[in-house]
Design goal:
Tetracycline Repressor, domain 2, about 240 residues, 12 helices, mainly alpha
């Protein structure tokens, strides 16, 4: 992995006031893709040839999968067909993705989320940190892969195996994020309060994705996700 790369712009929320709006600032609003896309772009620019080839293979597999699903449906798209269209072997597909569900649920931003969270300003409230991280992730995916994002949400709604796998992967993501939040707040890695807090936020993100897909994308996904964070900031008061 390349050395950690800083974005040229100052990360949002890094003003003297650590509780400042994490969505404000030049880095969060300097492009439609947002901070996370810029962060990943700077990071990828320093990858070696081997890592660039891995990234290209992973991308080819994902694009082949989405194209096949669009053409013939989720169940009918086989790993053998995906491998053929991505110009790789079936064993290569499984080397990058454990299951077909993982192919449609994983995107290129997943690996850098922990890195970005660790670099949030010291003293920033955990909810503000997660709000920044997750809304920037949504902005990046929506800007770069809008149709794939819709297709993924549709599959989450319509295919039980995809929804079940999403629940599993979000639990894994929640656990990883909770360890970083525990580090940032001086708590033990398995602190129950941190685990429950992080799981609640990720659970809200899951419901926002399902809600968006169920309603045929009539609302902007970022708006739906921000509504979830607004609810948390009101103390979950209805």
């Amino acid at each position: 992995m390349a050395a950690r790369t800083k974005t040229p712009a100052t990360p949002a929320g890094s003003s003297a006031d650590p509780s400042a709006d994490p969505s404000a600032g030049s880095s969060a609003g300097s492009s439609p893709e947002g901070f996370l896309a810029e962060f990943l772009g700077a990071r990828n620019a320093q990858l070696g040839l081997r890592e660039r080839k891995k990234h290209a293979t992973r991308t080819a597999i994902r694009k082949a999968t989405y194209a096949l699903i669009e053409k013939q449906g989720y169940e009918a798209a086989t790993i053998e067909q995906i491998a053929r269209d991505a110009d790789v072997s079936p064993s290569t597909v499984f080397r990058y993705f454990a299951t077909k569900e993982d192919i449609v649920l994983t995107d290129e931003y997943d690996p850098v989320m922990l890195e970005v969270l660790r670099e949030r300003p010291a003293g920033e409230p955990p909810l503000a940190s997660l709000r920044f991280l997750l809304t920037e992730t949504v902005k990046a995916v929506a800007a770069h892969e809008p149709e794939e994002l819709k297709q993924r949400s549709r599959l989450i709604v319509e295919v039980p195996a995809v929804r079940a796998r999403m629940t599993e992967t979000m639990a894994q993501t929640s656990q990883a994020l909770s360890v970083v939040l525990a580090e940032r707040t001086g708590r033990e890695p398995d602190d129950l309060d941190v685990r429950m807090f992080t799981a609640a936020v990720l659970g809200a993100l899951r419901e926002a994705m399902i809600y968006w897909g169920e309603r045929e994308f009539e609302e902007d996904l970022l708006t739906v996700v921000l509504r979830a964070f607004d609810l948390f900031e009101r103390g979950l008061a209805l």
